[in-house]
Amino acid sequence: MPPVFLVGMMGAGKTTIGRGLARALSRQFLDVDLVLEERCGVRVPTIFELEGEAGFRRRETHALDECSRISGVVLATGGGAVLAEENRRMLQQRGTVVYLRARAEELYQRTRYDRNRPLLQTADPLGRITELLRQREPLYEEIADLVVDTGKVSVARLVGRILPMLATCNKPVRPPADDLPPLECL
Ligand SMILES: Nc1ncnc2c1ncn2[C@@H]1O[C@H](COP(=O)(O)OP(=O)(O)O)[C@@H](O)[C@H]1O
Ligand SMILES: O=C(O)C1=C[C@@H](OP(=O)(O)O)[C@@H](O)[C@H](O)C1
Ligand SMILES: [Mg+2]
């Protein structure tokens, strides 16, 4: 089975469901944000503070390139990973892309007590989520091989739903060596 890439908005469940899928499939799980945090030795909000969103996105592209080359990996991306065309191409070519879809209100409920998402530290997080979802939804849909609605469905049930979808998906992938040379490590 090719690598599995989880995409979707903040709060869609990429990290949680990705971990469950990897366990069920006995595959390696990686989360791009956790890789960055381990590498930088600080949490995501600190990367935003020190280097701005542009700095974070640069690191994100590099980590995504590295992680998406790992054979059989289940990879949770960050919600904004689809913004760069280069990232979308990597994901689309190298594995099966699963879009975890949810409504803005649901995303808000799942993220409202978490301080680790700098883009949602605003006076109106629901408004911000609504706007980001409007901008990003076409990008998630553009690269999705599978679309999964996550509203009011438990994580365990979603994992159980996604497994047979992956087994029958038959996504043709191109080995990374055929697309881009590895980016230099940051
Ligand atoms: N289907 C779901 N139902 C209920 N809670 C969920 C669901 N998916 C995720 N969550 C919860 O929402 C929060 C955000 O999930 P997370 O996996 O961090 O999302 P993402 O990585 O997409 O931002 C976590 O507390 C997680 O337990
Ligand atoms: O949507 C985004 O732009 C972001 C989503 C976050 O990941 P999650 O989607 O896992 O919350 C993290 O990468 C960063 O805070 C930026
Ligand atoms: Mg996450």
UniProtKB/TrEMBL annotation:
Enzyme Commission designation: 2.7.1.71
Organism superkingdom: Bacteria
InterPro entries per record: P-loop_NTPase, Shikimate/glucono_kinase, Shikimate_kinase/TSH1, Shikimate_kinase_CS
Cofactor entry: Mg(2+)
A Pfam family it matches: SKI
Pathway(s) this gene product operates in, as recorded in its UniProt entry: Metabolic intermediate biosynthesis; chorismate biosynthesis; chorismate from D-erythrose 4-phosphate and phosphoenolpyruvate: step 5/7
Catalytic activity as recorded in UniProt: shikimate + ATP = 3-phosphoshikimate + ADP + H(+)
Keywords: Amino-acid biosynthesis, Aromatic amino acid biosynthesis, ATP-binding, Cytoplasm, Kinase, Magnesium, Metal-binding, Nucleotide-binding, Transferase
Cofactor binding, note field: Binds 1 Mg(2+) ion per subunit.
Annotated binding of ATP, by residue: G11, A12, G13, K14, T15, T16, R117
Gene Ontology BP term (one): amino acid biosynthetic process
GO CC terms, sorted: cytosol
Binding residue positions for Mg(2+): T15
Compartments where located: Cytoplasm
Binding site residues for substrate: D33, R57, G79, R136
GO molecular function: ATP binding; magnesium ion binding; shikimate kinase activity
Record note on quaternary structure: Monomer.
Similarity comment: family membership: Belongs to the shikimate kinase family.
Its job: Catalyzes the specific phosphorylation of the 3-hydroxyl group of shikimic acid using ATP as a cosubstrate.
PANTHER family: SHIKIMATE KINASE, SHIKIMATE KINASE 1, CHLOROPLASTIC
Protein name: Shikimate kinase
Organism: Pigmentiphaga kullae
Upper classification of the organism: Bacteria, Pseudomonadati, Pseudomonadota, Betaproteobacteria, Burkholderiales
Gene name in the database record: aroK
